C-alpha cells in the first residue's frame, strides 16, 4: 500500500523504511512516514504497536535494525542522542523526569544546558557559574514558565507541584532545549479532563510558535482535536495515515484500535 505524504509543506522529519528487531521479536517491521514542518502529527495505535520504539529510534536512544531517519535532510541514525537533541529534536518521557528537590525555575534553567539526559548532572554542577553569567537565560526561563502557565510556581520545589503541573514542567524543560521538533510521549497520561484541556491548548500554542510536534497519545479526544495528521501503527506496521476525519472513519483503524473502547475515540 502506498502511504505517500499528501501535503504542501516540507518535511522536517522523514522516517524511511525503519525496522527494529529485538532478538527475534519484530517491534517495527518497516515504517515510513513524514512529519511536515509546523504541524502536529500524532502516532497512535494499540499497546505494543511500536510507538515508543519509534520515538527511541528518532531520538537516537535505539539504533534501528534497518532504515533511516532524516531530520531536515540529516541522517539521525548515525548520531548520538545528545547530538540529535543538539540539532533540535527534543523529547519528553512518559514519566516526567524532574529534579524534585530543585525549584521549578532551576529545573527549566537546567533544561537550557540539556543536550540529552546524560549531561544533566554536568549541567547541574555548572549551574552556579551559568547563573552568574547568563541573565539572558534567566529571562528565557521566565518567558517559558509564563508560556506554560507556571510563573506563579517558579520558586516552588518541583516535588511540591501537583501532577498536572509536573507534566507542564516537563514540557517547559523540553522547551528550554529550544526544540525544532518536539516529541511528546503520552503527555496526557494520568491527567484529569480539565488538565488535559489545558495541556491541549499548550501543545497547540507550541505549534503556533513554530515548533513541529510528534505526539504519541492514547487520549483520542486530544489526538483528534489537535492533530493536523495522524499515523496509525499496528503490530509494527503503518496501517493508515491522514487527517483526523479520515482516520476516524477508516474501518481498519476502527477494527485495530478505535473500536476497542479507546478513551474518547469519538472526540
Ligand atoms: N527493549 C526491548 N526489548 C525487547 N522487546 C521490546 C523492547 N522494547 C519494546 N519491545 C517490544 O516491542 C514492541 C513494541 O513496543 P513499544 O513499547 O514500542 O509499543 P508502544 O506502541 O509504545 O506501546 P504502549 O502504547 O503500550 O506504550 C512490543 O512487543 C514490546 O514488547
UniProtKB/TrEMBL annotation:
GO terms for molecular function: ATP binding; ATP hydrolysis activity. The keyword Transport applies. Residues 13-260 form the ABC transporter domain. This is ABC transporter ATP-binding protein. SMART domains: AAA. GO terms for cellular component: plasma membrane. Keywords: ATP-binding, Nucleotide-binding, Plasmid, Transport. PROSITE patterns: ABC_TRANSPORTER_1, ABC_TRANSPORTER_2. CDD domains: ABC_Mj1267_LivG_branched. It comes from Azospirillum ramasamyi. Transmembrane segments: none annotated.
Amino acid at each position: 500500500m502506498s502511504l505517500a505524504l499528501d501535503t504542501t509543506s516540507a518535511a522536517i522529519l522523514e522516517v524511511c523504511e525503519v525496522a527494529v528487531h529485538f532478538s527475534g521479536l519484530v517491534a517495527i517491521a518497516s515504517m515510513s512516514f513524514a512529519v511536515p514542518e509546523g504541524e502536529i502529527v500524532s502516532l497512535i495505535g494499540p499497546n505494543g504497536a511500536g510507538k515508543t520504539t519509534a520515538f527511541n529510534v528518532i531520538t537516537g536512544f535505539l539504533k534501528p535494525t534497518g532504515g533511516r531517519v532524516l531530520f531536515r535532510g540529516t541522517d539521525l541514525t548515525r548520531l548520538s542522542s545528545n547530538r540529535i537533541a543538539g540539532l533540535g529534536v527534543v523529547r519528553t518521557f512518559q514519566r516526567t523526569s524532574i529534579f524534585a528537590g530543585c525549584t521549578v525555575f532551576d529545573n527549566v534553567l537546567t533544561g537550557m544546558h540539556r543536550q540529552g539526559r546524560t549531561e544533566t548532572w554536568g549541567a547541574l554542577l555548572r549551574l552556579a557559574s551559568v547563573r552568574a553569567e547568563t541573565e539572558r537565560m534567566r529571562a528565557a526561563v521566565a518567558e517559558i514558565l509564563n508560556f506554560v502557565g507556571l510563573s506563579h510556581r517558579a520558586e516552588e520545589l518541583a516535588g511540591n507541584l501537583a501532577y498536572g503541573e509536573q507534566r507542564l514542567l516537563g514540557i517547559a524543560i523540553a522547551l528550554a532545549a529550544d526544540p525544532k521538533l518536539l516529541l511528546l510521549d503520552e503527555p496526557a497520561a494520568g491527567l484529569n479532563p480539565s488538565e488535559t484541556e489545558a495541556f491541549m491548548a499548550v501543545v497547540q500554542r507550541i505549534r503556533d510558535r513554530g515548533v513541529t510536534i510528534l505526539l504519541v497519545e492514547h487520549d483520542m479526544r486530544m489526538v483528534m482535536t489537535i492533530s493536523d495528521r495522524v499515523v496509525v501503527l499496528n503490530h509494527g506496521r503503518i496501517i493508515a495515515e491522514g487527517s483526523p476525519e479520515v482516520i476516524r472513519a477508516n474501518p481498519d483503524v476502527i477494527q485495530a484500535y478505535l473500536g476497542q473502547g479507546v478513551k474518547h475515540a469519538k472526540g
